[in-house]
Amino acid sequence: MSPEDIAPMDAVRPGLEFLYAAHAKLADPIQIGQTPDGMRRIIPILSGRVEGSRIRGHILGGGSDWQLLRPDGVTVADATYAIQTDDGAIIQIRNKGLRHGPADVMARLASGEPVDPTSYYFRTIPEFIAPDGPYEWLNSSIFLCSGARYLDSIQLWVWRVT
User: Fold this and answer.
1) Cα separations in angstroms, 28 against 24, 73, 104, 148
2) Stretch 30-43: mean pLDDT, rounded?
3) Of 66, 135, 145, 154, which is least packed with CB atoms within 10 Å of its CB?
4) CA pair distance 39, 110, nearest whole angstrom
5) Which of 3-7, 106-110, 114-118 has the lowest mean pLDDT?
6) Does 1 reside within a domain?
7) Rounded distance, CA 18 to CA 157, Å?
8) Do the beta carbons of residue 93 and residue 80 sit within 8 Å?
9) Are 60 and 40 in contact (CB under 8 A)?
10) Domains contained in the chain, number
């Protein structure tokens, strides 16, 4: 194959297919404390709902986001939780990513004020572990997520990279 035979970049540019919106209720943070790499805390995930055209269900309690608040002001999220679809499938999700923004915006967010989610960066990469059956397609794609954090909840929007 010669370079002339390679498809142009626009022909192979990934697209995005909206998958679902989710809203989850969160418990108060459990502070682990200062560590060599920053402040660590656990955010328990209590419940929630997932709504999309290909998947609908509720977020099971018992998951957590194990966060690292780095000295540079970036929060590293590493959440593991599960959803139960309306038709009974259990799907595990591990969602890793970053949240940061201007210091004044992040201070308002930390104090519980409502903050426009477009004023800070909150992006994650969810990885799904679905059982064989109607949702096994989740195991063979890459996904992207944008988020918004509120005082005691979180909103997530998830896309499949096509």
Assistant:
1) 13, 20, 22, 17
2) 96
3) 66
4) 14
5) 3-7
6) no
7) 8
8) yes
9) no
10) 1
